[in-house]
Description:
CATH architecture of the largest domain: 3-Layer(aba) Sandwich
Bound molecules: S-adenosylmethionine
Radius of gyration: 19 Å
Strand content: 25-35%
CATH superfamily of the largest domain: Vaccinia Virus protein VP39
Number of strands: 14
Distance between the termini: 43 Å
Low-confidence stretches: none
Mean pLDDT: 95
Order of helices and strands: EEEHEHEEEHEHEHEEHEHEE
Amino acid sequence: MLRPPHDRYEKLHVYYLDRRDLPPVDDPDLIGIWVEDDTAILFFHRERGALVDRLCRQCGAGIIYQASLDYRDWEAGVQVTSFATAALCVRPVWEAAGAGPSGPEEIVLDPSVIFGSGFHATTRLCLENLESLMLAPERRIRSVLDLGTGTGLLAIAAARLGAERVLALDNNPLAVEVARKNVTLNNCCDRVLVEQADLLDGGMPGTRGYDLVVANLYKGLLTHLFASAQFWQGQMYLVSGFLPGMEAELLSALPSGSIRMLHRGMREQWRLWLLERKV
Ligand SMILES: C[S@@+](CC[C@H](N)C(=O)[O-])C[C@H]1O[C@@H](n2cnc3c(N)ncnc32)[C@H](O)[C@@H]1O
């Protein structure tokens, strides 16, 4: 995340280590540590080879891979900047207020190195559909469950657009840290709770009582969730993170007879479904 003396991301220096249990890293250039399975990926603003070598010697870790890249390349070649949807304006923390397009509701975001800057087609699809749902006068969406929240953007958007209670979950500890920071930046701690949970490993909460479940994930995890009865206790579902060639398999994984498809969205090669549980 951004901490003084840094106020934007330019270069990323990435060190991929073969252990996750590292001693604490206290360095002003550390952006964050991404823990995955038994490995840890350290992201720095500046080259930190000597520090990482020392760390490895201290705990017996080895470097699997290291790289330096532009932040823009990390973000798939896209320049992360302010953008507006019909009702929201999303501004990265490094841009001054009023510099970009204006919208009635502004979200300030530190995207860090976490999925959810708003520039991936699936995030944008979810954001725009979330907005339409939240603003539809015939629907009253009070509670939202955001599965795989990433930066927390969709959870914060839901709160900004009227949700009174949002639970946002992610299994990546750095995503949880970043999403919490973004929730604080946007003054919605009273409505958005961010927790670490692995949806594949007992962390999937019951969806009963949620008006909307947002799940921008990936096909394997969606198929896993679709097979669970407790996933299907919510009212509506915004599901994304899959490509046209995956739709048939996902469709056949929906519980037969109890789910209605309300809308199919597309952006670039990505797809989104809006589903409703029949009552
Ligand atoms: C495609 S990103 C979506 C992020 C954000 N919701 C958005 O729309 O931009 C998927 C997110 O799911 C999280 N995730 C992946 N597997 C997970 C699991 N087993 N349990 C919980 N979260 C998971 C990832 O860490 C990532 O942040």
